[in-house]
Amino acid sequence: MTGFKIEEFEFTSGSVRELPRASKLSNWPVVYVLNSPPEGRGARGSIYLGETRNFSSRMRQHLDNKEKQEKLKTIRVVLDDTFNKSVCLDLESYLIKYAAGDGTNDVLNRNTGVVDADYYEREKYTRVFDEIFNELLTAGVFNRGIPEIVNSELFKLSPFKALNEDQAIAAVDIMEGLVEDLSKKKEQNNLVVIEGDPGTGKTVVAVYLMKLISDISVHRDRHEADTDTMFSEFFVEDTVRLFEGLRIGMVIPQQSLRKSLKNVFTKTPGLKEEMVMTPHEVAEDRGEFDILIVDEAHRLNQFSSQSSGPANKRFQSINADLFGGDRPQASQLDWLRAKAKNLILMLDLKQSVRPQDLPEEEYLELLSDVPRDRRYKLHTQMRSMGGNDYISYVYNVFSPAPPSERLTFGNYEVGLVDSPRRLVELIKAREAEHGLSRIVAGYAWPWKSKKDKTAMDIDLGEGVEFQWNRVVVDWVNSPTALEEAGSIHTIQGYDLNYAGVIIGPDLRYDPWRNELFIDRDSYHDSFGKQNITVRNRPTTNEFLQSLITNIYAVLMTRGIRGTFIHVVDPGLRKYLGRYFPVVA
Question: Where does the sequence pass through the membrane (predicted)?
């Protein structure tokens, strides 16, 4: 077991000049924290975390930085006789990600990049990291404990993450491609696509790139980017010059996730709330963008009947303005390609859930024109403890070629719950133990409570009733979420610890024909059944079934630790019983 200690100094020229000449402070790998706590209610403090082999010299370099002189007051250095460079890089990354998720301080670090790399006895050191965090928590550096931090949207959507190998390869290659294109002054329509199943970290890469590009564009401190880190090669003068003054933005089609990311950007130095945009805002902007990153690109819309007459007119007006009346059927993807010199799409075609979403064949045609060295696939499962096997299994269960046998997934809790009352008990118990446990449902009940706030929307029997989500934006973190059922439109893009999934009467199973089928009349998303008349694309039962099964697959892959499933249709309940155990 390591024996760490934390020493504290003032961050002043006098104190730094008088730092002890001990070898551990001048010739040994250490991790340090510079911070100033918040002053006054509602204020935010500042924090910077780093690692170095020469602590005394590094502190003198930091004192040359005017921003740090003004914002930081205290130095804490973590010393341990067993530390090496790999341990310190890992601890630095560990503390940065929790500092960002804590939300008390502005994190002044740049995104120079740390890969989630293994090293000798990492598991032992990781246990020590928790002790170091708790000591810093006691000292007032942090405000919240780790369990509370990891359940926060600020932590889950933060750019301060160690990238896994898949993510790191994609991010480095994308940055190298951008440098190449910018240096050659290549014109419009440079396209990059990152594909990945639910939970592979597409949003992590998108936010990470936004922060990285922003940091490079304003980089001035030649000491700031450590030459040993993954992205340090991009913080050199010539590259910084290429990124200076670039206009960048992040496009989020879904309202709920967009609001959450705006909150994160507001609290992240170098990023701004207005960088997070709708496709409409980008299209109506009078300027152009050097780089646009689109998360959940599979939710970009084609032209269809909108929610109101003004919304229809707005879509048509954008097409007329951008394309001079030549492309009345242009989609939101067409808008973004017209407005951005460099477009980066995060894509999972299996998560299309409405007819208005761009059709798969259109994306496949687009992908065929994207060079292989500009297409990336994320494989590593970041969300579910069930791993990639669980994600594939869920999609296969709802496919025409289901699994031949039941599989289990280690410590991942998954099973059918026959009693709706028991479903509620399980989710509330997991909420008490782990937090972020919610009930979600397919859109198989009308939204009565939208107009009548006293009406109940979902009645499962046994006295179990729910209203649909009372808020659309950030429902997961709303105060009444545990008493409600969230729809696909409030949960897509979010993580839960446990998901209680209600599969309604819209999806059924015919044991005589041995096949899944849908009850169209039991599916109550009016936009979800809409025909796309301008493209002569009817929403057939076959197409609608693919959307509904996509919806349930998305709902069943939200849970990090587990998924409990209640099924209304007896035939479907029996069918799913082949693949999932019954939870008592």
Answer: none
